[in-house]
Amino acid sequence: MSASPDLVVTERLTLSGRLLSWTSARSSGPGGQNVNKVESKVDLRYAFEEELALTPAERELLRARCEGRIDAEGRLQIVSQKTRDRGQNLADARARLAHLVLVGITPEVPRKKTKPSRGAVRRRLGDKRAQAEKKGQRRAGVARSGGDD
Predict the structure, then answer these.
(1) Is 133 part of any domain?
(2) How many domains does the structure of the chain reveal?
(3) Would you report the helix, strand and coil content of the chain in percent, each value rounded to 5?
(4) pLDDT digits (tens, 9 = 90+) for 40-68
């Protein structure tokens, strides 16, 4: 388990390196004999509950949005095994963590209700009318038996 340097998410948000820890393990996938010897998979964990750079509201948002990625100790977990190189996988995991935190703490913009335009309503009703006529013609073209034969 190794500590990491601070992680800059935006110019206003930097995650503390003391709350980031990572371990490496043997990766699955291609790599030949190398895959059995080299620990290139990276498991990065972030103790976001202790982060002072995040407000309590941001921590709550992050907890709710990343619920499936939080381990038993309450740390956010990112695993990377994209490449055969541990350094590249660590960089990838850090980049993914930065993106996840940025997206996770961004509040959702509420949807503004809008009215469909007159043209949109006209098109929708025209399409409905055309569909009804098409089905009506199919019905009229089929001889119906009344069952009195």
Answers:
(1) no
(2) 1
(3) 45, 15, 40
(4) 889 999 998 888 888 899 899 988 988 89
Non-local (6+) Cβ contacts of 124 within 8 A are 116
d(CA 129, CA 124): 9
Domain of 72 in residue numbering reads as 2-105
Strands 2-3 and 7-8: unpaired
Rounded to 5°, the CA angle 85-44-33 comes to 30
The verdict on residue 112 lying in a domain is no
Give the pair of three-digit tokens for residue 61: 């948002």
pTM score above 0.70: no
Flag whether 77 is in a domain: yes
